[in-house]
Amino acid sequence: MGEALDLYARIEPLIPYQSEIEALHQRYLQKLKKHHTATLLDIGCGSGELLLRAQMAGIEGFGIDLSGEMIARAQAAGVAAAQIDLCDHDGHYEAATAVFDVLNYLDEAALTRFLGCVADRLTPGGLFLADINTLYGFKEIAQGALILENGPVHATIESHYEKGVLTSAIRLFEPDTDGLYRRHCGEIVQFYHTDERLSQLARQAGLNLLDQEGIALYGKRPDKTLLTFKRSD
Ligand SMILES: C[S@@+](CC[C@H](N)C(=O)[O-])C[C@H]1O[C@@H](n2cnc3c(N)ncnc32)[C@H](O)[C@@H]1O
């Protein structure tokens, strides 16, 4: 999976969804500010954009991600970040975030482990904010094909949803130093979780649901749900 995440990191700058990502990040920032969060762990921080926005709002953040490519970009942008598994990370934070599909990368067993490690990283009363894709988001928004282009670099993403699993085949075509194109292929798999099941697993990990709201990033109906959990004291 690590190689596929790095491949995604390489094509991400080609995907024209900057305004949607910014809108999503603003929703998270509003909630963090409302709760007067001072320290933040961003899990699956990607290239560090949320952390940069949080820094500007006076929040001290740290990012972790499984992709080395993403962490290199986050560090180059001036963000404190490390390529490490959440469950191997130390430190305690007033809030943790998992933004833009991160929870959907986990099957139920991995999600259960992940939520336990989130609770371990939070101070008592700390917050966990995360989004998950709705069924509409997977079936109607994510499914289909994208063709991406930036100068000589081309990429395609073909996504197919079936029985709770969204599979995205990524292909990147880049000219090498010899002028010939090289093709890089990978597959990202995402798992559908209902809000109810996520809340139940979180509660078992000591994270109680505070609120949840639907978010319509791409259409009129919510394609994501943003959930806020509070660690029991
Ligand atoms: C779609 S990107 C979103 C990046 C960033 N959160 C944002 O809002 O732009 C998903 C990120 O999650 C990372 N990721 C996937 N599974 C992860 C896991 N189990 N732990 C940490 N990072 C993970 C990927 O490498 C990728 O950077």
Explained architecture:
The chain has 233 residues and is of the alpha/beta class. The protein has 2 domains: 2-134 and 193-231, Vaccinia Virus protein VP39 (Rossmann fold); 137-190, N-terminal domain of TfIIb. It is 33% helix and 38% strand. The chain contains 7 helices and 11 strands. Strands 3-2-1-4-5-11-10 form a 7-stranded mixed beta sheet, sandwiched between helices. The chain has a 4-stranded antiparallel beta sheet with strand order 6-7-8-9, covered by helices on one side. Helix 2 (18-34) crosses helix 3 (49-56) and helix 5 crosses helix 7 (195-204). It is globular. The structure holds S-adenosylmethionine (SAM).
Offer a concise description of the structure:
The chain is an alpha/beta fold and about 230 residues long.
Structural class of the secondary elements? Answer: alpha/beta
CATH architecture heading of the largest domain:
3-Layer(aba) Sandwich
User: Would you list the SSEs in sequence order as H and E?
Assistant: HHEHEHEEHEHEEEEHEE
Query: Which ligands, by name, code or SMILES, are bound?
Result: S-adenosylmethionine
CATH fold-level assignment of the largest domain: Rossmann fold
**Total domain units:** 2
> Kindly, what is the distance between the CA atoms of the first and last residues, rounded to a whole number of angstroms?
35 Å
Please give the count of helices.
Answer: 7
- What portion of the residues fall into strands of 2 or more residues? 35-45%
Which range best describes the helical content: under 10%, 10-25%, 25-40%, 40-55%, 55-70% or over 70%? 25-40%
Main beta sheet strand tally, sense and closure = 7 strands, mixed
Please give the order of strands in the largest beta sheet. Answer: 3-2-1-4-5-11-10
Rounded Rg: 18 Å
CATH class group of the largest domain: Alpha Beta
Looking at CATH, the homologous superfamily of the largest domain is Vaccinia Virus protein VP39
Rounded average pLDDT: 96
What is the number of E strands? 11
Poorly predicted runs:
none
Inertia-based shape: globular
